[in-house]
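At this stage, I wrote out one protein, both as residues and as discrete backbone shape codes, and that material follows here.
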Amino acid sequence: MVNALFFVYCWLVFVPLMVLATVALWILCMVLSPFVGPRRAGRLTAVPWSRLGLLLSGVSVHIHGREQLDPDQSYVIVANHLSQYDIWVLYGHLGVDFRWVMKQELRRVPLIGYACEVLGHIFIDRSNHEQALASLENAKRQLVGGTSILFFPEGTRSRSGELLAFKKGAFRMAQDLELPILPVTLTGTRDILPPDTLRMQPGPARITLHTPIIVDGDDEQAVENAMAISRRAIASALESGQFSPQPDSH
């Protein structure tokens, strides 16, 4: 009965309100961006949009390990990917200015795709290796003054909830730019909105920040080592379930 009522609420209340909020904040983003820049425009539009979506769908976000973050440091952030809700959880509550690396297909999503482009997020054409590399090269110029870049190194959502194999792009960028890697584990989002379904349910989501990792060396082995250490760190929070809930107050 409760699930049925929440399903009705989603379609009669949540969806219409979020459509209206998306349109209103998209317009505000387009107006603000030329004057205040993508960093501040994102903080004033995309962050409230994400938090509103979480609030209206009954999702609470808890964070562990925020002391790992240096607000003045740029990072290459790598996170596991379980659900479309990962985007709202990270954008709304990570508390870091970052640029997403996302697949080219998302550029075609009405309003959101263009807003992401205006805010400086990076679209990757995975079918065109040279163009993908060029996109990442252009992104490097933005990684200053605490602005980071965020990858889902699995390349896609995990349908099973298990951690998939990682791709090397994020770790090569960290090596090239001599930036620390910040591993992030997301849990709970798959239960809120499983892949390949529109049936949501309220619940808690968790962000676990791990100790930053340095790519120690300039060869391929250093990249592989950093990737393996990052994957183990992310997997540790998935496997152990250890987490000290602290509701986000930011």
